[in-house]
Amino acid sequence: MSVQVSSPLPQLLAPEHRLQPDELLTLRCDDSGPIAVITVGGDLDIFTSHLLTELADGVLSDRRPLIMVLDLAALRFFGAEGISALLHVRASAAALGTHLVLRSPSPMTRTVLAITAMLDTFDITAGAGWPRAGSGRGHPYPATGA
Predict the structure, then answer these.
(1) Is 134 among the domain residues?
(2) Tens of pLDDT along 61-108?
(3) Which DSSP string corresponds to 12-69?
(4) CATH number for the domain including 81?
């Protein structure tokens, strides 16, 4: 499943500064097994963060995975609404007994989480090898701060 978003306010930007729809936010979901992986790319901000929370809530309620992984390696921009979105997904997952893992946060994402003292709030893993959707392998609680 992929979701692409266009800017809600394109008229405010000069044509040379407008982003193409696939440059704003891309969400890809693989929920084929006990591990659901949502890959997030582009900008997670006030205009796009609701799309992540809606997708995650849908996967959680429909599939009830044991582990939900948010792969954040391809995020270019991560603002305050991104933090709110991650906290929302974390609370939704916890309410259903699903463990949330942030995989490979981009440098900007890691910096924002560090500045806001949120790094210890999430389980974070640096490698793309664990966990993989549908694999069911690996330790369900990876080391944080990788």
Answers:
(1) no
(2) 999 999 999 999 999 999 999 999 999 999 999 999 999 999 999 999
(3) GS-GGGPPPHHHHEEEEEE-SSSEEEEEEEEEESTTTHHHHHHHHHHHHHHH--SEEE
(4) 3.30.750.24
